[in-house]
Specification:
The structure is a single chain. The protein has 15 helices and 20 strands. With 517 residues, it is an alpha/beta fold. A hairpin with a 7-residue loop joins strand 8 and strand 9. Helix 6 (251-262) packs across helix 7 (270-281), helix 7 (270-281) packs antiparallel against helix 8 (287-299) and helix 10 (333-356) packs parallel to helix 11. The longest helix has 28 residues, at 489-516. The radius of gyration is 30 Å and the shape is elongated.
Amino acid sequence: MQPIGLVKGPADSPLEFKFITPDKTKLKSGEFVYYYLNGKKVICRVLKRTPLRLYPDLYLSKPTVEPERILKALNINLKEFELFEIKTSIIGYFDEKLGFVNPRIPPKPGQQIFLAEADTIQEVLMKKRINEVGSIHIGYLLNREEDVPVVLDTNLVVSEHLCILASTGSGKSYLAGVLAEELLKPYNSAALLILDPHGEYHTLKEVEGLSEFKSDDYTPYIRIYGKDDIKIRLSELEYNELLNLLPELTEKMEALLNKAYRSLESKFTSDDLINQIVEAAGDEKDVTAKALIWRIRRYIQAVDVIDDYLHMELTELVKPAQASVLQLSELSDIEQEVLVSVLLRRILNARINAEKGLDGEKLEYPVFIIVEEAHRFASRDARSFNVLRTILSEGRKFGVGICLISQRPSKIDSDILSQCMTQIIMRIVNPADQENIRSSVESIGKDLIEELPGLTKGQAIVAGVAINSPILIRVRNRLTSHGGVSKDAASEWMSWGGRDEVKTIKIKQNQKRLFWE
């Protein structure tokens, strides 16, 4: 491998340096280079590219005359104007015994710099290889014409949680589909639950017919839950969740409800709750009891997602080699929040029971949950906030992993966002969202935050524990169809306009024919 440049000296911090290059390779921001230290290849990331010498302003005063012609006429050597100063950040090297190591020793002035080969990048930056057991192949290195696979560690994604943050139309749901595909491959065989507020993930059903997802003894299954299939029992609601569903309760109502709720058995119906309220009040004509019962009938019995007897069995909802998609689009915001709160709490408790050998509902295997429109459920005023915060802080110990997906990270509580130890950030323009990412996601440096507005659809920054260093990627193509494709409004308008025009012409032709007849 031929060197591409020579070290000039240190830059702004102890972990940065500058080197000079004729830049025949057209080094871009985010590209990887290396230098040798004790026989090790120390990987570095390109931060900034600046011409070493600029043309004098006078030479640029006439757009029709190229400055090179002026320099040649003056017999000035052009080579100095072809050199570039590259600012670079030191990342580290991989050691088989020690793992990923940052040497914290900058190269000496005059030391040779090399463009990192694909194998070197994968060895140093990726914890897994493509198609390896426990791997997630999400895309390719952004700045390379050759395909350099970017692969995440499944165990670290699931156990340490993940967030996908992007502006609308940047491709976050498409990327989530890629993630789901990888988790359903034979080398992962995940127990996957997808909370889908917009009905975008039904196309994952195509997985069942694709050979890429099958092996001799493995075939994944996709289960789609519609509105009529999504049920939770009233008795599965905790007292605070029940309280939040009933508006404008007085102190007397709360006290009566609390007394009635505490006296019920573990499984009860809405009628059982009403009867217990009457019994606790001592008189069915009691004003407080009547007002409370009216609210239960209005806000509990009238809610479709809450049922006295039906609910979703966890062992059927989440199991290895299966993705269950809960289509929430027909549920109200309140129903969605209550469902997420109850369901996630049940899953966490079932995993705790299994791990600790306790009685009750159990799940004997880890679970990964993709939460779309996460800002709806992870803000402090959401009914599902507490259970999400608990899972993100304690779920790692019990095998419950969360992927939060949102286009408004500023609306997600910063404590929750900071618990997502792997981050995939796509194009974000909103300054408030950028600032929330900057304050909540420690692994992404200032130089990469500045890249966010310039990313195009399908491009992203990946950082965190599932990869050794933040990198820029382009998302790989999905194997299944994307269910969240934007409408082609102009084409649809034109097609409808054409229909009306044809219809009008036919009517006029018929009228003319009748007239002459």
